Amino acid sequence: MPADRNVLFVVIDQLRADCLFGALAEHVNLPNLRALMADAVSFRRHFSVVNPCGPSRASILTGQYAMNHRSTRNGTPLRHDTPNLATEVRKAGFLPMLFGYTDTTQDPRAFPPGDPILKSYEEVMPGFQEVVEMRLEQSLPWRAHLTAKGYDVPPYPEIFRPAGPCPDDPALYRAEDSDTAFLTDQTLAALRVRKPGWFAHLTYIRPHPPLVAPAPYNRMYDPETLPLPTRVGPAEAERARHPLIAASHARAPISSTVEGFPDLAPTDENIRMLRAIYLGLATEVDHHLGRVIAFLKETGQYDRTLIVVTADHGEMLGDHHAWGKSTFYDAAYHTSLIIRDPALPALFGRAVDHPTEAVDVTPTILDCLGLPIPHSMDGQSLLPFLRGETPATWRDHTFSELDFGDPVAPHPAFAALGIAPEAANLAILRGPTHTLVHFNAGLPPLLFDHRAEGEMRDIAGEPEAQPMLLAMTRAMLDHRMRHANALFARTLITDAGLVTVPRA
After folding, report:
1. For 379-430, what is each residue's pLDDT tens digit?
2. How deeply is 355 buried, as exposed, middle or buried, from its count of CB atoms within 10 A (0-12, 13-18, 19+)?
3. Which among 503, 489, 376 has a CA at the least distance from the CA of 58?
4. Which of the chain's termini has less CB crowding within 10 Å, N or C?
């Protein structure tokens, strides 16, 4: 890339991978993302390594598994001295601008007890310059914009309540004034006055709930044409599969995805309606991302801009009678990843099917910029794949975690499990043929066979599955041991002084 190269790093909140390749792809119109895929390299087996938003973004931006950075919940602090994407690109002279949010909870050791920064999980990761504050629960510039235009702006979360008696009624704001439109307007305004050589981290809230969309996106898709979720049977059958499932259903019912409808029933009609709103929000984001890409082309910057587009995690959207992302199913972790390095056009339009993880994103950006990857980062650069190469030692699995405890205000359904907060967690290993879900606190594991019924059938208790269960458990233990915090793993103090061996 030329010396005046740019970086555009986009994270779309809660976008399921199958909107681009999978069950929902044929039901949603995403022309700009698809056009970018045709002009970039896509990664089809890309997974978040932790949920929800704050922990996931911590892993994306630090390149660390949650077991190492330990910011495992929205509201759990992240160590202030953890190397991240912003701190590293600053070393090359980039000013990492943030248009949106990182949902980073600050390290309380770095601030006095009364500092207001310690009252929100939606703060900014160290190193980024917040150009436009666009946080789900605050978004003060957007709210001011709406007020100036004459809207009666209620507080969060009522601002996301439909302006009518039905969940699919339009939002109180017009499409040109939506949060997605406003963030894009502000981003373009800032970039237009920047000389080439900028670094922009653009993060869209949508299609994250509350599911409310301005017209025409609220009813852009006919619910009757959409497929129903993947389910093993009635909700009772799903809850009987594992103790955690019933608690998860209680904490995040269908009504948790919309504002103002606490009694919304999980009927097929309502499920399809919410799926239609979700897809409408995805199309709205696609439209505005298309505006950003058009700006790059119009200003001659498209072919000197490294573009990375991904999502922080997925969304169950009714699959297995679940909503949100705090579960163990693939739909909550499987995300899209699109990378366009204009210096490496050979594979444009191709898709990579090797397993990749969210922790790989920051190492890849650093590698594309010719910057060293800190030893603390667990991820691996995807640059070889962009060149058409497959590393000989590439992983054959992905690893994810979830902390479902709450040490301050546990949900009654989870409190009833009687699990201490430090033990309320699980880990997922997705291998070539099987997926293992291992639970702490003595909860039974789950084992799925991809070659047969996959997540529709747990085989962990079947006698013939015991060798695979043991092999997967050992592989997960190996993974955790191999990726223990590596900050000084290649460093020794010797009689000759400090010696650090480069990353392999």
Report:
1. 999 999 999 999 999 999 999 999 999 999 888 988 889 999 999 999 999 9
2. buried
3. 376
4. C
Alpha-carbon distances of 214 from 33, 169, 298, 395, 479, rounded to whole Å: 21, 8, 28, 43, 45
CA distance 293 to 306: 12
Both structure tokens of 322? 């679940």
Q: Residue 114 carries which side chain, given as an amino acid letter?
A: G
Q: Which residues contact 453 (CB under 8 A, 6 or more apart)?
A: none
Helix (H) or strand (E) holding 132: strand 129-133
Q: Do 120 and 111 meet the contact criterion of CB atoms below 8 Å apart? A: no
**How big is the chain, counted in residues?**
504
pLDDT of residue 232: 93
Cis geometry, peptide bond prior to residue 216 (ω within 30 degrees of 0):
yes
List the structure tokens of 502.
């480069």
- For residue 208, what are its two tokens? 């994250």
> In the prediction, which pLDDT does 162 show?
98
pLDDT at 1: 45
Whether 239 contacts 413, CB under 8 Å: no
Instruction: Supply angle C-alpha 377, 382, 384, rounded to 5.
Output: 125
C-alpha torsion angle, residues 282, 450, 231, 16 (rounded to 10)? -10
d(CA 71, CA 57): 10
CA distance 299 to 380: 33
Which segments of the chain have a pLDDT < 70?
1-3
Question: Under DSSP, is residue 135 helix (H, G, I), strand (E, B) or coil?
Answer: coil
Q: Which CATH number is 6-395's, of 3.40.1000.10, 3.30.360.10, 3.40.720.10, 3.30.930.10?
A: 3.40.720.10
Pair 76, 405: CB distance under 8 Å: no
Pair of tokens at residue 387? 């060149």
Q: What share of the chain is helix, strand, coil (3-state, %, to 5)?
A: 35, 15, 50
For CA atoms 474, 475, 480, 482, the dihedral sign is positive
Tell me the CA distances in angstroms from 90 to 326, 366, 377, 469, one per residue in order: 33, 11, 17, 45
pLDDT, one tens digit per residue, over 209-244 is 999 999 999 999 999 999 999 999 999 999 999 999
pLDDT score of 3: 63
Residues labelled catalytic:
53
pLDDT of residue 295: 98
Contacts of 12 (CB under 8 A, 6+ apart): 204, 206, 207, 282, 285, 289, 309, 310, 311
- pTM of the predicted model, to two decimals? 0.97
pLDDT of 4 reads: 83
State the Cα–Cα distance between residues 64 and 491, nearest whole angstrom. Answer: 18
